[in-house]
Design a protein that fits this description.
The protein has 8 helices and 5 strands, in the order ααβαβααβαααββ. Strand 1, helix 3 and strand 2 form a beta-alpha-beta unit. It is α/β, with parallel strands linked by helices. The N terminus is likely disordered. Helix 2 runs parallel beside helix 3.
């Protein structure tokens, strides 16, 4: 039955049918029509975002927009992958999330970083720590600096030549 549903949905999609039963248009269009420009938002999952959606969102909002990636959850739910390179090319505020145990096997930001492949480690760590804290409004968290309250962890099992994560990478919290 699952395969039949998948085939049926693909047929609907090719025939031009959409799920826009309430005539909202694209999710990006609905967001800009519903959310005030001066409100910060966290947009989660983002697997079906294109350049037109990004332009629409970014031209609307004057407050920070955070693009939260949950690749483990995306693989579990839909097997779709967010357009990470498109987000990077646009210089978007990217952060990481896990969604929940209803759609993920673990609540591990390390696991989410591993799902993202060969993104430079420094960039992944920025998405996971300071950007995640900023997106949630926790200005005192996410980085080691005067006046901050960072958590500290040791990351091991790296490919030190390329400074990337490996399947053997692990993390241990120390503070």
């Amino acid at each position: 039955l699952f395969e039949q549903r998948g085939e049926l949905w693909e047929w609907y999609r090719k025939a031009g049918f959409t799920c826009d039963f309430l005539h909202y248009g694209s999710p990006a269009r609905r967001i800009v029509e519903s959310v005030p420009a001066d409100r910060s938002v966290i947009l989660i999952h983002n697997c079906c975002v294109n350049q037109q959606d990004i332009d629409l969102i970014m031209n609307h909002f004057t407050a920070p927009v955070w693009w939260c990636l949950c690749p483990g959850s995306n693989r579990y739910i839909s097997r779709l992958v967010p357009p990470v390179e498109l987000f990077r090319r646009n210089g978007l505020n990217i952060c990481l999330g896990t969604d929940s145990l209803a759609s993920n096997t673990a609540l591990s930001l390390l696991g989410e970083m591993q799902h993202l492949g060969k993104i430079p480690l420094a960039e992944l760590l920025t998405w996971a720590a300071p950007n995640g804290a900023r997106a949630l409004g926790f200005s005192e968290l996410g980085e080691v600096a005067a006046g901050k309250r960072p958590g500290l962890a040791v990351l091991s099992g790296l490919d030190y030549d390329s400074m990337t994560l490996t399947p053997a990478s692990c993390i241990a919290r120390i503070l």
